[in-house]
Each structure stands twice: as structure tokens, then as C-alpha cells.
Design a protein that fits this description.
The longest helix has 24 residues. Helix content is 73%, strand content 0%. The protein contains 6 helices and no strands. It starts with a helix and ends in an 18-residue tail after the last helix. The chain is mostly helical.
Amino acid sequence: MNPLQTYRQSHQKNWTRIDMLLTLYRETELSLRSGIDALRVADHVEFTLSQLRSIKLLLAIIDGIKPEHDELSRNIYQLCLFIFHQVSRENIDGLQNGLRVLVTLKESFEAIENESRRLEAEGKIPPLDFDLDGTLAVG
């Protein structure tokens, strides 16, 4: 096995669901901020690149939500759809609104980060399955 594959396997085995989720939220936040900055200076090429990256990241987040699971999941799903709608437009105010909602969700997950890791270590939350068949869904 080559060194890169060894690194990826060892890194993945230590990655929890909350790590993955927070990484998606943090990267989406960075991408949204980049898009807002690009629009402020009328750099439409950079905005489009940031917008596409944000959309990809949001799709990964949305794909992992099972809105039929419970009311909380439905609410998070609806909020993520709102963010997605804001990102799909070329409007600073909309992007800022989407960013505020995204940051609020991210901070909520950060608040339960340690508990989530503990619950996953205790087996109360199933570990990540790295042989995913197209979905990151939980719940």
C-alpha cells in the first residue's frame, strides 16, 4: 500500500460524524465569505467559483439530512434549503442572510461537538461508514 493510502485510511478511521459535519459547515462558511468578498469588488469569476463550491458543499450537507426522521431534522433541512436558495442568487444581502443562518447552525453543532464524539465512541451514534453508496444520511 502506498503512503497516501495508508494516511487516508488512518485519518478516516479517526474521523467522526461531527468532524465531517463541522468540516462541511466550516468550508461552506469560508466559501460564502469568499463569494461575498468577490461580489463586493465585482469579481464575477471568483464569485461564480465560490458559489459553485458553496453549492457543492451545501448539497453534501443537505444529502445527509433525513427530514422525515424528526422535527429537528426537518427544521435543519428547511434552513439548509433557505441557505441554498440564497447562495443560488448573485446578491450580497441574500448571501449574508444565508451566511448568518449557516453560522448559527455551525455554532449549534460546535456546541455539541464533544458530546457527539463521546456518544459515537460509546456506540450510541453509529460510526461513519466510508464505503458509502452515495449518501451521508444519518438518523
